Amino acid sequence: MQPPHTAKRTKEWLERYRWDIIPHPAHSPDLAPSDFHLFGPLKHHLGGKKFEDEDELIGEVRAWFSKLDVNFFTQRIYFLPWKQKCIALHGDYIEK
């Protein structure tokens, strides 16, 4: 199985919608803060739960987002400047 960013179907979709592709490490915490500051807590919330179908999963994700306090996002936005530093250093390590 190919990683999603190299899969033929993904590449076709990106070409169809003319998205610009920015090369960077797929799992860099400095380039993808959502992986660590949003999807981690969501994964924790969904962990161990079983869903009958996609609609049930979507409903649970929406319910989780609707219950988040505004500070959840504000606190995580604070980390975004590190992304710009990493880009300026061409992906080199950033000491915080």
From TrEMBL:
Tell me which domain of life the UniProt entry assigns to the organism this sequence originates from.
Eukaryota
**GO molecular-function term, one example from the UniProt record:** nucleic acid binding
Q: Which residues cross the membrane?
A: none
- Which residue spans adopt a coiled-coil conformation according to this UniProt entry? none
Q: Matching InterPro entries, A to Z?
A: RNaseH_sf, Transposase-MT_Hybrid
Name of the protein? Histone-lysine N-methyltransferase SETMAR
Q: Which organism is it from?
A: Plakobranchus ocellatus
